[in-house]
């Protein structure tokens, strides 16, 4: 019985995190730099007031408890994958915010020229694009994006 994650999973995760320009620990396109933690509850620099948790047992226990894994190796894979997902989420949020800004420019131009705020045929194109790329859940995602981008002018 194997105690760690399958070797193929580890190799795939290493390829995903090392070959991508915005991978954790690297700077590149789509990688945002923040002066502090991006998320609430994100680890921060230790202060003098915080206790030093260097005991291996405490670290292993908290890591496996945090991840739900039953082995240290699996907890390590999960932790690394979650860091990657967090970085992807940060990029997605940034892209959504950029999309909202571009949409506001389009709406402003359309309204100032005497047109309507929304273009339903264009929204149908966006819905179809997401549905074709992601299936039925893509439609819901596109609806949420369109809702976020409406009425910002």
UniProtKB/TrEMBL annotation:
Gene Ontology molecular function: any one: chorismate mutase activity
Residues covered by region (Disordered): 20-75
Domain Chorismate mutase stretches: 72-153
Stored InterPro entries: Chorismate_II_sf, Chorismate_mutase_highGC-bac, CM_dom_sf, CM_II_prokaryot
Composition-biased stretches (Low complexity): 54-66
GO terms under biological process: chorismate metabolic process
Pfam families associated with the record: CM_2
UniProt-recorded name of the protein: Chorismate mutase domain-containing protein
Protein species of origin: Streptomyces fructofermentans
């Amino acid at each position: 019985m194997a105690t760690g994650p399958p070797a193929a999973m580890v190799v795939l995760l290493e390829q995903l995190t090392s070959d991508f320009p915005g991978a954790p620990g690297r700077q590149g396109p789509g990688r945002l730099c923040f002066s502090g933690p991006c998320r609430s509850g994100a680890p921060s620099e230790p202060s003098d007031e915080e206790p030093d948790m260097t005991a291996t047992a405490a670290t292993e226990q908290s890591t496996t408890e945090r991840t739900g894994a039953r082995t240290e190796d699996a907890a390590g894979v999960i932790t690394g994958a979650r860091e990657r997902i967090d970085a992807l989420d940060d990029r997605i949020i940034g892209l959504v915010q950029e999309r909202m800004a571009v949409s506001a420019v389009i709406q402003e131009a359309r309204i100032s020229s005497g047109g309507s705020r929304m273009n339903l045929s264009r929204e149908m194109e966006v819905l179809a694009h997401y549905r074709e790329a992601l299936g039925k859940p893509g439609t819901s995602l596109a609806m949420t994006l369109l809702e976020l981008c409406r009425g910002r002018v």
